[in-house]
Design goal:
Shape: flat
Number of domains: 3
GO molecular function: structural molecule activity
Function: Assembles around the rod to form the L-ring and probably protects the motor/basal body from shearing forces during rotation.
Family: Belongs to the FlgI family.
Protein name: Flagellar P-ring protein
Distance between the termini: 30 Å
Structural class: alpha+beta
Subcellular location: Bacterial flagellum basal body
Order of helices and strands: EEEEHEEEEEEEEEHEEHEEEEEEEEHHEE
Number of helices: 5
Strand order of the largest sheet: 4-5-6-12-8-7
Oligomer: single chain
Length: 365
């Protein structure tokens, strides 16, 4: 009986040749990247699920500062509201973002607030690592979790102490970067590989009919855009990013022991190897028995232990030979022929790798 295990296959089409991928999906353009922003703010309007002022004194401090900026004098007052929470606000400023555009922000409580559901973030400046303010965030918080509690029980679903504000930050300062002033641009491969970098180089030079691309290392291809005879750097990159190449990937087998998932790349191969697998189960059952004295007799009830132990050597797979394979389909067919469960298949793959017969990088999560 053939047992189909949970195997996710990454297969490239075998009939029409390997799949080609756009260069924009394989590389990052040097200088075209986002910038991280962070700010410290206050969420108000919570339904009694805010910070406790005794455990989070910084919340009282920022609340006092906000009220004083609004003209409310709270000097010497002891504030004990339960509907405010101190939060950290994070966002990513996308490349070429212009003043007035909006970006999404993430809000996370840093005190002992129970939930940010229904709260509103008060105007919060967002700073970059250089200390400058590049955006300002404000708006209602959308929390992906909920928390309900009573005197004897509580239920928490999701993470109610964090949330998002879609388009909640407005860009106030632009990043000084002039793309069209660049005459040389580097392409950084997300998966460094000599073969892939060489194919990108040849594809770009063939597209432009000039030697403008040069492979520097397995992770970098340098572009001399002055040889491209294009109107601008942006025009050249828009043409380059849509060129298709065939990427080369390392053979990998990725195993997730928690879910029993096995992922194989298309280049995985197995040498001729013999495999045998069996299951050994140990069972110990406790069934204590109460022994009572006869009626009207002197004595005490005694609990006598009763233990039943057994060893079950369940029949597994007999010695099976996996032949040399030349394709992923043959690998899968040979492994399926063993007729074992996903958990056993993970152990078999691990041992085949230890024996040197699995020609792929073996990654266990």
């Amino acid at each position: 009986m053939r047992i189909i295990f949970f195997l996710l296959l990454i297969l490239f089409p075998s009939l029409g040749g390997a799949a080609t991928i756009r260069i924009k999906d394989l590389v990052e353009f040097d200088g075209v990247r986002g910038n991280d922003l962070v700010g410290y703010g206050l969420v108000v309007g919570l339904n009694g699920t805010g910070d406790g002022m005794r455990n989070a004194p910084f919340t009282e401090e920022i609340m006092s500062n906000v009220l004083e900026r609004l003209g409310v004098n709270v000097t010497g007052e002891q504030l004990r509201p339960k509907n405010v929470a101190a939060v950290l606000v994070t966002a990513t400023l996308p490349p070429f973002a212009r003043a007035g555009s909006k970006v999404d922000v993430t809000v996370s409580a840093i005190g002992d607030a129970k939930s940010l559901l229904g709260g509103t973030l008060i105007m919060t400046p967002l700073n970059a690592p250089d200390g400058e303010i590049y955006a300002v965030a404000q708006g209602p918080v959308l929390s992906g979790g909920v928390s309900v509690s009573g005197q004897a029980a509580s239920v928490v679903q999701g993470v109610p102490t964090s949330g998002t504000i879609p388009l909640g930050a407005r860009v106030e300062r632009e990043i000084a970067f002039q793309l069209n002033s660049l005459k040389t641009v580097r392409l950084a491969l997300r998966e460094p590989d000599f073969t892939t970098a060489g194919r990108i180089e040849r594809a770009i030079n063939s597209e432009f009919g000039a030697h403008i691309a040069s492979m520097q290392d397995p992770g970098t291809v340098s572009l001399d855009l002055s040889q491209g005879r294009m109107n601008s750097t942006a025009h050249a990159l828009s043409r380059i990013e849509n060129i298709r190449v065939e990427p080369e990937q390392r053979a990998r087998v990725i195993v997730d022991q928690r879910s029993g998932t096995i992922v194989m790349g298309s280049d995985v191969r197995i040498s001729r190897v013999a495999v045998s697998q069996g299951n050994l189960t140990l069972r110990v059952q406790e069934a204590p028995e109460a022994i009572q004295p006869n009626p009207f007799a002197r004595g005490e009830t005694v609990i006598v232990p009763r233990t039943a132990a057994s060893i079950d050597n369940a029949p597994g797979t007999k010695m099976a030979i996996l032949p040399d394979t030349s394709s992923l389909a043959e690998v899968v067919g040979g492994l399926n022929a063993l007729g074992v469960s996903p958990r056993d298949m993970i152990d078999i793959l691990k041992n085949i790798h230890s024996a040197g017969a699995l020609h792929a990088e073996f990654i266990v999560n």
